[in-house]
Transketolase
Amino acid sequence: MAYDKSDELAINTIRVLAADAVAKSNSGHPGAPMGMAPVAHVLWKNFMKFNPKNPKWLNRDRFVLSNGHGCMLQYALLHLFGYNLSMDDLKSFRTIDSKTPGHPESHDTDGIEVTTGPLGQGICNAVGLAMAQAHTAAVFNKDGFKLVDNYTYCFLGDGCLMEGVSSEASSLAGHLQLGNLICIYDDNHISIDGDTNCAFTEDVVKRYESYGWHVVIVDNGDSDLEAIDKAIKECQAVTDKPSIIKLKTTIGFGSKQQGTHGVHGAPLKADDIEQLKEKFGFNPKESFAVPQEVYDMYGKHSSDGAAQEEEWNKLLAAYKEKYPAEHADLTRRLSGKLPEGWEKNLPVYTPADPAIASRKLSETVLGKIEAVVPELVGGSADLTGSNLTRWKSAVDFQPPSTGLGDYSGRYIRYGVREHGMGAIMNGLAAYGTILPYGGTFLNFVSYAAGAVRLSALSQERVIWVATHDSIGLGEDGPTHQPIETLAHFRALPNCMVWRPADGNETSGSYYVALTSNHTPSIIALSRQNLPQLEGSSIEKAAKGGYVLHEVEGADITLVSTGSEVCICVDAAKELQEKHGLKVRIVSMPCFEVFDLQSKEYRLSVLPDGIPSLSVEVMSTMGWERYTHEQFGINRFGASGPYKDVYKKFEFTPEGIAKRAIATVDFWKDVPNIRSPINRAFQQMI
Ligand SMILES: Cc1ncc(C[n+]2csc(CCOP(=O)(O)OP(=O)(O)O)c2C)c(N)n1
Ligand SMILES: *[C@@H]1O[C@H](CO)[C@@H](O)[C@H](O)[C@H]1NC(C)=O
Ligand SMILES: *[C@@H]1O[C@H](CO)[C@@H](O)[C@H](O)[C@H]1NC(C)=O
Ligand SMILES: *[C@@H]1O[C@H](CO)[C@@H](O)[C@H](O)[C@H]1NC(C)=O
Ligand SMILES: CC(=O)N[C@H]1CO[C@H](CO)[C@@H](O)[C@@H]1O
Ligand SMILES: [Mg+2]
């Protein structure tokens, strides 16, 4: 590809636009967009396949800006190539309710594949997207029908490489031989503190070579467009390894402060912008100016993309003729609907069924639904055996050359990489054809908190199979026993935290998790056996909280979750028999879903006039919203056989009864007890 003045003009247009938008909002990061404009231009104009008129076209190339602070680069590209992002949208950069928020958010803006900004996440999302692409190709492509091909591209900066999570995902990507993944590292030697030599002196080339990546160095990313072009071509030709281009650039190229941290995250001064525009041949008096020639050049590429999609649609139509079942499956998946009647496969239990650990109940659910929900792609962070996340006939997702599986496989061996797994699952979910779940101990979901937060913010349906959910794991002790974990993730907006108490509730948790297309779920599951509770059902669990045991003229409501509900049932018997107290029992497997029910329903579960006590072997934080008194564990746990640990903390029928009596005594003189559900105003959700 030959490059000339018109390419330079387009590149400088991007640079000037970034400087103008950051100046107008008086906040933002001009440096990375100005430094990466050349590679962005070469990649988007000459390599990337997309149709701005249909940003969801399945076989588009995916683009991830892992250094999300540089989002004015991405916004400028989206605008110039004709996505639904107007010049006014660019002018409202970083203002309330704009389509150009401070960091790119996938659900706000067409053409943004994943939400980035927290450094390191984006490159992991890109690994997930590339895995999804490889998987979807392996499942749906047929001889003569290459429905899915092409690439995932990712830009990243020094910050992304410094963050450990990038190592987790990059190591796995190398193992998985993801030849469709091409990353471009903005090697500008600058981060916020200044020259990276103050903290980041590792040999990135050797690091990525050791991961099994193909590495290319481009020495002049500021103006050697031919070299950039050649490097991308070279990476495309390497099909059995992911690639990374170490591209030397000058941050803030064109600014008087170029090459310094001064241009990283502050607007350029007015005189600096003036000289920049003069230098690049723009009118210094004009802002947000785009030469028609640039729109035309990029518009041409976009119409080529639209034509490619047309061609592809013809291919898809022919595919439909020849492979109607596969076609129906693919289009259904893209619509976000689960197969008709899939939920009939969710197991139900009777009170006569034996006590079973909920991690085991979860394995049964997965085994029953995997065949009818083919988009389920599972995995575990090296805890497959104890997590029970892998159904019996599962094939591993592996490069065929390893002899360990193939890319059509639906079970991912993430290795001991919880954070990487979480971030990769966000990429898998964002691709559009996959419903990812991943297993680890509940305590270690916290390792992945950075990724879980982004699942919630960017509305990705990602499911955590979080086993060993409490002190009930026993001997492994306080290092492994979650205390604060539920409170933490319950506090996270748009994240469902489930703690089912038996088989019906486990099925109910999966039912809601799978059908909530825009919400991640953490399903906390026990290591120890749990009895089937008389009165549970999938439908009741799906309300988030329900009355398991009702009694007329009750003295107290016990509210509990998971493995403590059955102990409350025994405590209720003891309270009735020994103390003549009438006890209602509420099971509350999911706060977030309960909160979504009508106030009338919530008050029927937690009515006025009766004191309530929550019982959960975790931090009590958060329970004040539902109960008058709380019995929990606000310290670290203890190492020992689980029954001994429960005894130590008095989570026994007697221990619960003692606190129930104290609750009844304390509240008996209080007139008109109000349910905590009754509040002065509704929370904003
Ligand atoms: C997880 C995380 N920690 C900290 C930040 C704040 N932050 C934003 S940009 C940046 C420096 C990034 O340096 P680099 O990737 O080299 O970007 P450049 O300055 O080259 O644009 C930091 C620390 C962040 N966005 N995410
Ligand atoms: C473009 O975005 C606006 C909102 O900013 C929306 O109202 C409009 O329908 C979108 N147009 C298309 C073609 O999607
Ligand atoms: C990817 O897309 C390009 C066109 O942009 C095409 O030439 C190429 O064959 C496609 N597939 C692969 C695997 O590169
Ligand atoms: C589970 O739900 C089914 C159907 O709703 C019900 O018949 C059964 O009794 C429930 N099991 C238990 C243990 O309550
Ligand atoms: C389905 C599956 O892989 N189950 C395994 C779960 O782990 C136990 C050991 O803890 C194995 O025996 C099962 O085969
Ligand atoms: Mg940098």
Summary: The radius of gyration is 28 Å.
